[in-house]
Every structure is written in C-alpha cells, then in structure tokens.
Amino acid sequence: MQTRRSFLVSGLMSGAVVSGGLGLAGLAAPALWPAAADAAERGRTAVADLDPGSIPKFATAMPLPRVLAPHAVSGTTSYYRVTMKETAAAILPGLPDTTVRTYQGQFPGPVIKARSGRRVVVEQTNSLGLPVSVHLHGAHVPPSSDGGPMDLIQPGASKTYTYPNQQPHANLWFHDHAHHQESEHVYRGLSGFYLLTDETEERLPLPAGEFDVPIALREARFDTAGQLVYAMDDWPNRNVILVNGRPWPYFEVAARRYRLRLFNQSNGRFFDLKLSDGSEFTVVGGDGGLLARPARATVVRLSPGERADIVVDFSRYPVGGKVVLENALGPGPVEHVGQVMRFDITRTAPDDSSVPDTLRTLPEPRAATVNRRFELSMDEDGRPDPRGYINGRTYDPERIDTEIAYGTTEIWTVTNTNRLAPHNFHTHLVMFRVLERNGTPVTDGFESGLKDTVSVLAGETVKLQATFTGYRGTYVYHCHLFDHSAMGMMGTFRVA
Question: Which of 102, 227, 388, 452 could staple 489 via S-S, CB 3.0–4.6 A?
C-alpha cells in the first residue's frame, strides 16, 4: 500500500499533465503549516479530529446543485434575491449535521444560469455575523459590482450587484471576498455556480440537460462532532474530499457521454484528476468557456479557483460497471486524498451528442505595448505569523500598485519565487491568455483558452496577456489559494 510519504514523493516526481506539462515540484506544503495554527489546533478544547478513514467512501449519492429561480424577469434583466446565512447540512453519514455558511441556505452552493447580453441583478443580504463581499469570479463587471475585498456588506445589510454579462460564455462562480474573512467563509461553504451561456456554446452538439453536470471539489477537515475545523493554511490536514458537498460520493450515470464542469472551490488543494482505469476523456473548456479545439487527455490539473470542462464517454463501460475519479496529487494519505468520487454506470440511454473538432474561434491577441513583472512569495521559514507578498509588498487597500491605461494590451510575467510553496494567479475584470509556461509557448490544450486563474508552482514563471477595456476603476489581482490572499498576497490595479 502506498504510504502518505510515498504519495508525496511520487507526486513531486510525477510527470506532465494536460495543463501545460507541469511538473509537481512546489507542492511540498506541509513544511509551511504555520506554527501558530499548529499550536492553536493542538490546544483546542473542542472534540478531537475525525479520522477520515471512518467516513465510508462511495456510500453517499452526489447531489446536484439547485438552480436558483429569479424573483422577477423583464425584457432585459433577471432579478434574484439571495440571503447569506448559516444552516445545518447533512454531510457526514451517521454524524450530526454540519454548520455551514451558505447562499440561500444551499450546500453545495446554488446555480445561477445566465446568458450573454442579458443582465442579471442579484440583491445579496448578509445574515451572517461578519462582513462579506460577493465576488463573481471571472466576470467582466464594473467595480461597483466586482465584490472587491474592501467593498463590504455589513451584518444585516444588503447590496445589489449588477452583472451586465457583456462577455462570451464561461464557467463562472461566486464566493466571498471580504479581506481576512474570505478564507474561512469560503472554506465553510460560501460559494456557488454561475453558468453563462451564449449562441456559440448552445449550437454545439455537446451533452446537455441532465447530462451536463456542474461538480464542485473542495477539501475539508472535521471533528468527531461532525463540524468543520478551520485553521489558516491548514490544507495539508484537510484530508476529506467533498464533491458537491458530500464526502467521496457516487454518481449514477448512463452508458453515454456526459459533460462534467469541474470547479476547484477548495482553499488550497491542487488536483490532478484522472479516471482510475487510465482511459482518456476530452477537455473542451476551462475558466473562460470552450477551447478553440478539444484536447484528448488522461489527466487535468486544477489549482484553487480553476475550472475544467470535460466530456467523458461512459459507453465504454458495461452497465453495472464502476470507475473512480482519482487525484494524483498530495499532500495527504493516498487512500483519502487520492480518491475523489465514483461513477456508477446503471443504465443505457440514447446519445445524439458529439464533440466537434472545432468548438469556437478565440479572438487573436492584440499587440502588447506594456510589459510588467510580478513576483509571488510568502514566508516559508516556519515563523508563527507568515505573510504573503506580491513584488515584496503585502496588500494595502489604500495603495494602487499598478496603473493601467484604458484599452491597452499588456504582457505580465508572473514568477513564484518560493522554494516550496505553490501559488496561482487570478485577475479580476479581465480574462487573459497564457502565452508561455517556463519559457515554452502554450499553443493548445487546457491552458490555451481564455483564463482568469493560472497555476504557478514554486520556481515557475508564466507569461500572460490581457487587454484592459470595458470598465474603468480599481480591481485586484491575487493568489487564489484563499489562505495566501488572506495573508496579504494581493495587489490593486487601476484602469483609467
């Protein structure tokens, strides 16, 4: 049996994956677990940690997130009302319900279905005891509706967000972004799906309806009372994998094609996702919607915040067959974090879907006139109160770090200068194109589409290109490992 240590070592030595041929060096994060969090957890007076091995695997059905219905509809706009509140969710079999923080009382978070060119207006009411800020991740929106880290909704208050949806189809999601609170709020459940479609996507014969399934992945740690345990940068100890809010569930499928929209909504865990029999699937999209061309793959990597849109043909399996979705990355015991969910083939079904050779035409990148460099780093010397930095500075909401002229196209070179810590990089307002990874051009595959979040492991460099248009104002860029952004790895840019 593979041990925890061998899983870590094999992860670090593993080879390329579809997300740009990345090696796995830079995920040895157990060395970074803050001493203060360690001491705090050891000294807790609450009940002890739950052994993940006590949770039966593939014993609970994976729920489908519920689609929110607008409370009003006009010729141009759909209107929603959402309340953020705590509720008790049945997560762990045989244990008391778990207290979670939710949108509209739903765990997993709800789905808002939107269409390009049609506005969505959401009135968010905060019934939690702490400030929140709702960010629609990947959305092209004005600053007033971006949900920045200091644009807070106080307890008992409401805020209306307007999403113009003046962008192509995309796999978006919404989550809390209140600075220093976002890490715990999202960990405890404050996230949801926002599926934006358009004619380009709808005219394709991809699997649709009940065969188009959103799936949120996240990591968790529980105590023996069934409650979530939270400590900053604790993800190496969060060894329960939740899929749509359930631990290691099963999902019954027909022997036909399915479109699986995979969202990494975890605080810090990276996933290398693969089928247990090693068979291929087809990557059709990512953060910013469909790729130009599909890519055949056996593994796809998702860092926190990233999305992968894949098509799996379950007709290769007999009715009664089963296949596990596995994770090839540590840290953690392989028997726990190495498994994600199981697909059970229970029936036949007609299938007129297909994956065309061409999915969409992506816009040609404009000529860039500005080049910038960004260095991501965090303290990794074991100090009790580590900080995260971009270009040597922690986040200061009163400071503008980057001034951008409206309409310009820029190339950003982003480097992770850490020796151990993995990071990724997320920009608000714009989607970008990944031009290079470690000096190698990105021309096809998972990272060739429109992106808003990109993995940057220790010692790695990625080169990104974006055009800043549509709205003027201030936005942020940051590491989307929530714990790292909460530790200060964030900066502010202004488009003027």
Answer: 388
Cβ proximity of 244 and 108 under 8 Å: yes
State the CB neighbour count (10 A cutoff) for residue 140: 22
Predicted confidence (pLDDT) per residue in 27-84, tens digit: 544 334 443 344 344 344 457 999 999 999 999 999 999 999 999 999 999 999 999 9
Identify the CA nearest to 194 among candidates 80, 114, 308.
114
Final residue before a domain boundary, out of 170, 201, 232:
201
Percent of the chain with pLDDT over 90: 88
Instruction: Average the pLDDT over each of 7-11, 115-119, 434-438 and give the range with the smallest value.
Output: 7-11
Q: Retrieve residue 42's tokens.
A: 């050891």
Q: Is residue 161 a contact partner of residue 124, using CB atoms and an 8 Å limit?
A: yes
Q: Which residues pair with 461 in a beta bridge?
A: 415
**C-alpha–C-alpha distance, residues 105 and 86, integer Å:** 7
When divided into structural domains, the chain yields a total of: 3
Report which of residues 37 and 388 the model is more confident about.
Answer: 388
> Are 117 and 152 found together in one domain?
yes
**What's 440's domain CATH number?**
2.60.40.420
Same domain, 22 and 82: no
The letter for the amino acid at 172 is L
CA gap 221, 230 in Å, rounded: 7
- Is 361 among the domain residues? no
CA-to-CA dists, residue 439 to 21, 328, 413, 458, angstroms? 12, 25, 11, 15
List CB contacts of 465: < 8 A, sequence separation 6 or more.
Answer: 365, 368, 409, 410, 411, 412, 432, 433, 435
| Number of C-beta neighbours around residue 407 at 10 A | 12
| pLDDT per residue as tens digits for the range 145-188 | 999 999 999 999 999 999 999 999 999 999 999 999 999 999 99
Q: Any idea what the Cα angle at residue 180 is, between residues 141 and 137, rounded to 5°?
A: 25
* Structural contact between residues 114 and 169, judged by C-beta atoms closer than 8 angstroms: no
Q: Check: CB of residue 490 under 8 Å from CB of residue 424.
A: no
Same domain (yes/no): 154, 102: yes
Look at residue 360 and tell me if it is in a domain. no
Q: 77 and 189, same structural domain? A: yes
The domain of 187 spans 72-201
- Phi, psi of 236, rounded to the nearest 5 degrees: -65, -20
pLDDT at position 12 over 60: no
Residue-averaged pLDDT of the chain: 91
What type of residue sits at position 452? D
Q: At residue 280, what is the residue type?
A: E
At 432 the pLDDT is 98
Same domain assignment for residues 415 and 398: yes
20's CB contacts (< 8 A; 6+ apart) are 434, 437, 440, 442, 445, 446, 447, 455
353 in a domain, yes or no? no
The Cα 6–Cα 401 span in angstroms is: 42
Please check whether residues 219 and 196 belong to one and the same domain. no
**Separation between Cα atoms, residue 464 and residue 368, nearest integer Å:** 11
